[in-house]
């Protein structure tokens, strides 16, 4: 499997604390708001919600990956993808600085998605209250488009994946990395959040991403030169 898939999975795993902050409240709310007689089905709701979220990631990855692969094919050169990979490396570095709490520039990038999200969010509200686990699937698909710097960073890797399918798989790997935290909403959420919020843990992971981003950028620059 391409190393970008592993990198995407690690981004999701390491950014789980951010995921709990962005989507954890929503996941908790949908289980608390379910009918009393269905409280025993909370895991079904969570699973369907997260399945919908991952489907949205995969659709976005397929669109981005396919579009940029088409541009590269039409140009008859790999140069556009090399430039894009350099940008992806930059996004990885920005993400590492954000996760390590050294620089919060990624939050500025998230603001660009707010324009679209304002149009999408009302559609999610119309789906509430959820009457069955199956209803959590479209709800999760809508919330999958929530403006998120982690998603944007990973989409830059989907863009240079080389194909529609690879772009979709990169985003699937990212989504799978976020699952442990999102499925732990409730019973294990407090313990998991305590670990993920530990500054030393976050910075150790951030240094790994930083190293990968610098290495990728170095390779892209060498290909250009």
UniProtKB/TrEMBL annotation:
The keyword DNA-binding does not apply. Residues 7-214 form the Urease accessory protein UreH-like transmembrane domain. InterPro entries: UreH-like_TM_dom. Coiled coil: none annotated. Keywords: Membrane, Transmembrane, Transmembrane helix. Pfam families: DsbD_2. The chain crosses the membrane at residues 6-33, 54-73, 79-99, 134-157, 169-192, 204-221. It comes from the Bacteria. This is Cytochrome biogenesis protein. It comes from Photobacterium swingsii. The lineage of its organism: Bacteria, Pseudomonadati, Pseudomonadota, Gammaproteobacteria, Vibrionales.
């Amino acid at each position: 499997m391409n190393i970008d898939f592993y990198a995407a999975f690690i981004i999701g795993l390491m950014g789980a604390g951010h995921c709990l902050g962005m989507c954890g409240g929503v996941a908790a709310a949908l289980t608390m708001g379910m009918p009393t007689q269905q409280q025993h089905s909370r895991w079904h709701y969570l699973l369907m919600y997260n399945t919908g979220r991952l489907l949205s990631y995969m659709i976005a990855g397929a669109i981005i990956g396919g579009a940029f692969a088409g541009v590269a094919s039409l140009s008859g050169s790999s140069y556009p993808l090399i430039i894009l990979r350099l940008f992806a490396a930059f996004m990885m570095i920005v993400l590492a600085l954000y996760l390590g709490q050294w620089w919060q520039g990624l939050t500025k990038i998230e603001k660009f998605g707010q324009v679209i999200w304002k149009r999408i969010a009302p559609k999610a509200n119309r789906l509430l209250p959820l009457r069955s686990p199956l209803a959590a699937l479209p709800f999760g698909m809508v919330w999958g488009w929530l403006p998120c710097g982690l998603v944007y960073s990973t989409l830059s890797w989907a863009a240079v994946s080389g194909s529609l399918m690879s772009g979709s798989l990169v985003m699937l790997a990212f989504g799978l990395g976020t699952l442990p935290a999102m499925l732990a909403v409730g019973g294990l959420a407090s313990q998991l959040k305590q670990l993920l919020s530990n500054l030393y843990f976050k910075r150790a992971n951030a240094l790994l991403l930083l190293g990968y981003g610098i290495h990728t950028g170095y390779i892209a620059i060498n290909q250009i030169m």
